[in-house]
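Morning - molybdenum atom inputs below, output right after.
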Amino acid sequence: MRTKDGRLAPTDWNTALDTVAARLLEIRASHGPDGVGVFGGGGLTNEKCYLLGKFARLALGTSQIDYNGRFCMSSAAVAGNAAFGIDRGLPFPVTDLGKADVIMLAGANVAETMPPLMRHLDRADLIVIDPRRTATAERAAMHLRPAPGTDLALALGLLHIAVTDGWCDGDYLRERTKGFDATWRRAMSWWPERVERITGVAASAQRAAVHMLASARRSYVLTGRGAEQHSKGVDTVSGFINLALALGLPGRVGSGYGCLTGQGNGQGGREHGQKADQLPGYRMINDPLAREHVANVWGVSSDSLPGAGRSAYELLDALGTPTGPKALLVFGSNPAVSAPHAGHVVDRLSCLDLLVVADFVPSETASMADVVFPVTQWAEEEGTMTNLEGRVLRRRRIVPAPDQVRSDLEVLHSLAIRLGQPADRFPTSPREVFDELRRASRGGKADYSGISYDRLDSGEALHWPCPEAAEPHPGTPRLFLDGFAHPDGRARFAEVDYRDSAEVAGEDYPLYATTGRVLAHYQSGAQTRRVAELNRAAAEPFMEVHPDTAHRAGLREGTLATVSSARGSMVARVRLVGTLRTDTVFLPFHFPGHGRANLVTSPALDPLSGMPEFKVCAVRIAPCPTPVRDSPERPAVAART
Ligand SMILES: Nc1nc2c(c(=O)[nH]1)N[C@H]1C(S)=C(S)[C@@H](COP(=O)(O)OP(=O)(O)OC[C@H]3O[C@@H](n4cnc5c(=O)[nH]c(N)nc54)[C@H](O)[C@@H]3O)O[C@H]1N2
Ligand SMILES: Nc1nc2c(c(=O)[nH]1)N[C@H]1C(S)=C(S)[C@@H](COP(=O)(O)OP(=O)(O)OC[C@H]3O[C@@H](n4cnc5c(=O)[nH]c(N)nc54)[C@H](O)[C@@H]3O)O[C@H]1N2
Ligand SMILES: [Mo]
């Protein structure tokens, strides 16, 4: 707990829990239940996500809960739901990719971000769409290098070519889809030369890509954050889904569309009710039947459940404002580094009356907190996670947790009873929580009711939906073979058109910055910056920049640059990369302090998903006048208070 002189100092659990509960009750009494917010994470187990959502809605009574997955796959989720009626990263087993002939990867650097997936991509010819020549692009048969934020124009152009060059599957369009005509009316004017002017991808390369994808026997289109993290991320993903539908790929064995998920539980994290608008089982919180079902499982009246709250960035942006939460509980995220416009987010966090962080490392957000709960980490606990193909996996305890450390479930339980909740409403055993989650998900889109720890422990591979049945249901490795999840069984084309990114480069900020990941670090770096080997591999913030662009700005290899946008500046070491576009610089977002890429990123949000525009903002670069730099975190810092 933070002491009077401002340090974080050790205390005992009862004091910490009593203090937090008392403060929460005070804040609720003066500001109402929405005076307290909750911020979750896609790294939490299914059990934690579920209990966190329940804790927010019942113990706190707040609508103000969202999570870092809003920054991650939310655009693909909206587009997938609209097109197919269900949002599951891959609607087929990942091993299907191993038999593919051609795979288009739009904005995904799998070689660095999902190395274990690469072995499934070995056989296929890859078409990589990325402004950078990444490690993944190096292995590709074809690399298209659009300007950041222009993929939607590219997707429209590829659809245009698919139609005019006669690659569409007419029977499939008639029998399995709806809405093609309206979509085509938009794509009609996106002839390849016009697309070339906006994206920089040559018309001939566009034609070659469509030819390769369409003429293969087994082909897939996959999207990653590069296509999704935009203020038009939903429309961009829809653009790629339109292309896949026109070619007749989804809903057939041996071809398809999929979104690559992110965090360990990126898929499960978006199903069990830690999202602002969601209840367990991928139910929507504004749907009266969904509310009734979940309220029944929870033993409360559906009237007592709050409605939808703010999306992640909107929630952070509202902290400490007259209408926003005065207290925030963070479980599984480090927004001081990973949220867009991070300088502003840190200001908002410091305006709170109470910041509580549960973590197992002293993250930058934890170091701002009034109270830090030291919790168990993955090898120290039981639970389940759901992977990108919708398969539920067991997490098993393999080492004992240190003394004085409690699980997230225990923390939620201990707080809930202090807030007046019945003890049995917040179980601490993961198996018990999972059994309740099964009931809450029954009949929902993501139906887990037929999945049990016993079945998983006996080695069964179970993909949701897996309803409870007299004969154990085998789960659903492949979705959509008989029909899509809309009532009429047809997939929907989306009527999308191109628009610019929220910021266009101009006189003051002439370049585009895009952000992403490197192999050696994970996310905000809270965990990986503590590992000496990883720090050696990627020690400090850097900027990839084309030699000509650097030269014009007076920058040389290895010097320090200031990167500035309309929101702020960050400092990074210059790395000259001859294969990069001359209008674009790349910044990894793994570093703290002055090296935070998110000091410059834009909080422009996609209107449908709430996804921030991490992948493009306008910047200028210049030599850094004074070597202001934070010392890299020491790996040996004591992890727990
Ligand atoms: N090593 C490592 N692995 C990770 C993570 C990590 O932090 N480190 N994080 C995990 C998580 S949570 C996630 S979400 C995944 C993310 O996995 P990816 O989606 O592969 O990761 P990113 O590096 O964010 O973005 C992918 C690529 O998009 C490109 N890009 C940027 N702007 C654009 C654009 O406008 N259009 C296109 N087409 N491409 C663009 C970038 O150059 C980058 O190479 O990785 C997961 N795996
Ligand atoms: N500029 C830019 N910013 C980005 C992105 C980008 O591409 N560019 N990508 C975005 C994406 S896709 C994502 S997913 C976010 C991720 O960004 P963050 O949400 O900040 O993710 P992490 O750095 O993994 O932080 C997770 C924190 O939770 C802790 N933690 C992990 N597991 C548990 C647990 O079980 N319980 C508890 N209590 N704590 C736990 C970790 O120790 C760590 O401190 O960043 C987003 N920010
Ligand atoms: Mo992510």
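Note: The CA atoms of residues 42 and 179 lie 33 Å apart.

O.
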